[in-house]
Design brief:
alpha+beta
Length: 253
Amino acid sequence: MKIVSLNTWAGRVFDPLMDFVSEQGRDTDIFCFQEVFDTPTLRTIVDEHYRTNLFFELQERLPRHTGHFASAAEGYGFIGPVDFPLFWGLAMFLRRGLSYSRIGEAYVYGRPNTISGGANTPRNLQYVTIHQDGIDYTVSHFHGLWNGQGKTDTPDRLEQSRKAKALLDGVDGKKVLCGDFNLLPDTESLAILEDGLVNLIKTHGITTTRSSFYQRPDRFADYTLVSPDVEVKRFEVPRVEVSDHLPMILEYS
């Protein structure tokens, strides 16, 4: 099984992103994308740079996969409210032919489609349970809270981690949790999520998950955590300039 996780930066680096997705689509079983917009309109750009219909554009480049969108907020771009239908959230693309029993989402911060300020967008966790060779694998991802206070511990982030951990603890079988957590490596918020899981960013000595588009000093935001019974065949964070984040690629059994 192969998983690719990436914060797409809402398609701001559009052509390189699309080329990367097309290439990876040849042998990837599950894509986990954060920061994805969707709209039923013909609009293509919002806030000067970001793709309003990125979910549709990703699906076009992944004809062998089925997309599932999980909206966390609606009616807002990154700058503020918009005057057309616009949805923002997470997307999973599953290779057709995969056997799975459920796909869904749960909120780990805030309430569905409510915004109390520019930095307080609700956060959801998207998941799917895959059946492969008689084994259940639950793959989940989320885009962690950005609250304007860096990537350190706050009460909201701690509560977000506790909710995500509770969701994972309620699932049987092997587990993968990935995404842009918006956390630094030494935070208690990350330690809560790591409890009972293996942090592949740490075990593989990854030194950054940010591309050259990101100019701030902190170099970590994205993580892939797996349960100890997941046999990791390959894990890498390639220096691919398709977003202000780098992709994470996991092959496992």
